Amino acid sequence: MLPKSLVLALGLILAAPLAHAADAPFAKQEAVASQLRDTALKGSGAYDILESLTTEIGARPAGSTALLRAADWGAARMKALGYDKVTVESFKVPGWKRGAETAEVTAPFPQKLVITALGGSVATPAAGLSAPVVLFKRYDDLLAQAPGSLTGKIVVVTERIIRAQDGAGYGAGYRIRGAGASEAAKRGAVGYMLRSLGTDSHRVPHTGTMAYDPAAPKIPAAALSNPDADLLEHMLARGVPITVKMLLTPTFGPELEARTVVGEITGREAPQEVVLIGGHLDSWDLGTGAIDDGAGVAITMAAGKLILDQPLRPRRTVRVVLWGAEEIGKAGEAFAKVHGPEVANHVLASESDFGAGPVLKIGLPKTKGGEGFAEALMRVLGPAGVVYDRQDAVSGGADVEEMAELGMPVASLRQNGLDYFDWHHTPDDTLDKVKANELDQNVAVWSALAWMAADSAASFRAPAK
């Protein structure tokens, strides 16, 4: 039998970590965040929100009547969920609409090709555009060509993007879609096609936005399905000229209205201080916008609902934002024009815009203002399968970039996106690709982070120099 003095000493040692945890700076926030996590993992309601959006609205291109209906849906849904304040912010976007889109090899091996116009592309001549093809397996090989060397040709770039859990392949390949048409035009090309920025092998092309360089002629631009990019490679390997005819009939009109929906959970003590989360309401027109980005909309709306269900509002305000034109790069700019003057009151922000795969890791601003916050947060998120990456380059998402440039701190919630680019920007972006339990895991993570940041006094802003 141990002496009483030793038993007492051991008891004090064993109890010390528990006492320390109870007295930790974020102990109260950690306790509530753990409850939010467990509630979400049992069923967050996010799947029902996503099912409603994709079924009742479907595809939601920026500026379309469907996007306006989606904004009405989002505002009504937030009010029904109990958000304290719901507002709708309108802004203008370019009036571009997709038309017909076909392509075929006309000689010497006549076959149809499957393409889709890139967002913002000009049209071909009404009868279509026929020209010899010149193919580059690497985008840098196109850039190495001299001005005028591709005159009268349709340029095809078949460089592949790699499959990566964090989507790094898409980031590396984005320039092929974004700038490729203008680079080809600078060298005399009359048309441009690229292998889709996707990791699938389906005969389904991936759309996406592109931009024209004002210093180059505007030529029609389209994405090929990955098997059709392979097909052209095989044809050209035979050493004979290949002629392709492409037809695109997009139209440009007056500017259109887009809308961003903002739902607020008003802080009980410091309502002027804001923790901002959200997803983008708009989508491309080919699928129903389930993974891009109906999932982000549903995740963050459901996270807000869990916070609303707490007996007390958090100390700071939580805003859930459904941006209305991410796919064409206009929503963040419009949002910053409205909220830029109050950027100093924004505590932390992040956008959910990488599908419905589970969150694997989190990155926070590298400041000393929230000592103990990351440790407390990871005690909550660790059981949900999340790790803290201290080396992570923190990026909050496309729609918060402008506010971040003004000084708003952002966090990164990195999901498993290994198969995200199988469906991204295609007709296959549909509800069946989403697993309800993985949405629930996302809600667990987002609600815990938002609650802890909003209910605490932690600062994520770098000290003024």
Overview of the structural elements:
The chain is elongated and about 70 Å long. Strand 14, helix 11 and strand 15 (387-388) form a beta-alpha-beta unit. Helix 2 (27-42) packs antiparallel against helix 14, helix 3 (46-56) packs across helix 9 (290-308) and helix 9 (290-308) crosses helix 14. The protein has helices at residues 4-23, 27-42, 46-56, 65-81, 139-143, 168-178, 180-186, 226-236, 290-308, 331-339, 373-381, 401-405, 420-423, 436-455; strands at residues 85-97, 101-107, 111-113, 115-117, 129-136, 154-157, 191-195, 221-224, 243-248, 251-265, 270-280, 316-323, 346-351, 359-363, 387-388, 412-415. Helices cover 35% and strands 22% of the residues. It has an eight-stranded mixed β-sheet, with helices on both faces. The protein has two domains: 27-95 and 255-455, Aminopeptidase (3-Layer(aba) Sandwich), CATH 3.40.630.10; 99-249, Glucose Oxidase, domain 1, CATH 3.50.30.30. The chain is built from 14 helices and 16 strands. With 465 residues, it is of the alpha/beta class.
